[in-house]
């Protein structure tokens, strides 16, 4: 019989804060009334959700934030030395080491940044793990897919426990790439799922989850099911018919032997770009009509930006920890829904401390990933 898989510990450094506790506290303090002030404090030369701590170089930032995130997760799980050695590490990112490549090129006019081997050796030394690291790069679904991959290994008894690290650090190449596709918001306000949204705002973050087959706390979230689908419509946009997105979410429900009646909320990807927004709202609308049932829809990117390959771990941590702290967070800066779409995201905080959540993520290249997590005893099967 397949083993169960739980998220037993987590950590995050993002625009909201330097650790999980401060990030959740800040998230709960943001409202439509102070959202513009929050953005003003975040943005400097460009509109970008940034890690606020200052560093002497991009290299120092990369390794110090990575180290802190890993150590915070170990502390959160209270892992013993022998347990750390049993960790299988999965790295997930879109940009990977591009920020370091840029820094070396600007300073030395050479492309000689650290290799993936150096990154993995750095982490393996901290953990003293016995196993080589794995790198997963599937655009904005990277860390969600890394969690799915690690979960499969644990369920099948191939590994005992895993650490999934999602990370994105600011680099000019990625920023200019999204700008060239005219996907970056010109207004400087994040308005996903809003009819008047004018694009996305990128963000940087580093986060970590530890996966194990046994709970460490009564309110640990279990990974009940998941699914992945691929949309061959375009490399950089989603098919407006929304079939691949709908199938991903619906197949995740089937894999968990659940239907929409069992779901507390749906965490949408909601990048803010016109094509992605429209395709996803169509998919969610189809899902609700197919099951003849609605649930709350939560959007998190206005709080931290679009953190690309790390958004899976980032948004899973923020939502799960927010619920553990008693709140299903509202979607901020939403004003006008799409025509003929019969739902809007959650607009007021809701008091709650347990939930069954359908998470959805979309990536360039047509990747769709959906996961169902629950800390409700009657749902954890």
UniProtKB/TrEMBL annotation:
Recorded GO CC terms: cytosol
Keywords: Transferase
Organism: Aliarcobacter trophiarum LMG 25534
Pfam families: ketoacyl-synt, Ketoacyl-synt_C
Family designation: Belongs to the thiolase-like superfamily. Beta-ketoacyl-ACP synthases family.
Protein name (record): Beta-ketoacyl synthase
InterPro entries: Beta-ketoacyl_synthase, Ketoacyl_synth_C, Ketoacyl_synth_N, PKS_Beta-ketoAc_synthase_dom, Thiolase-like
Biological processes annotated in GO: fatty acid biosynthetic process
GO molecular function: 3-oxoacyl-[acyl-carrier-protein] synthase activity
Ketosynthase family 3 (KS3) domain sequence ranges: 1-375
UniProt key word Transferase: yes
